[in-house]
Predict the 3D structure of the following.
Amino acid sequence: MKKSMLPILIGIMAALYIWIIPSEPLTLKIVFKLIPMALIIFYAFRQLPAKAAPAMRLIIIGLFFCMLGDGFIVLSFVAGLGAFLIGHVFYLMGFIRMSRFNKARLAALLPIALYSFFIGRQLITALQTDGNDGLVLPVVSYMLVISLMALTAILTGNLWATVGSILFVISDSILSWNMFVAAIPYSDVLIMTTYYSAQFLIASSLASIGITNRYQEGKSMNM
């Protein structure tokens, strides 16, 4: 398959799942939900250089656990949340190894913290009001990890990783708000559109991150 055709195929399969595939039978829905992610993981592998850094492989492991989360969350919210949490931990470990700290990037900590505080407070209130106290700790833990993931993605200085991580936060915010706080019109479309876009951009970041890393290594050797 030509490399340029793979993103098109990912887009077609994502659109097919979002707009065409019916909710029943559930097995068919899950299968078609996983196909775009399987293609994104394949696409991510094709972005790796011949000598891929361990950090880049951590990102791919993160993609895999997110794909598991896609399937689990249909059957169990907690199981799906757990798989996504593990996926974000791998993203975080990968991004932090590729981070380049500077004041401008660290300044992203403030808006991320404020946003997480606002969403988190609303979710906790809604969960406690509905008697879902058992979900408070898992949801808060997940929000903390995904917020740190977004921050470390920004610290890489990579545009695709940055935009992808922000879209992931937006996607999960829509999902959790729709589930626990208030209904959002066209939530399914908004959630999956931002989600698939986020994962594709994170996978795409591997190519440019690889180029940046090779440049940094060459620069260090010449100094």
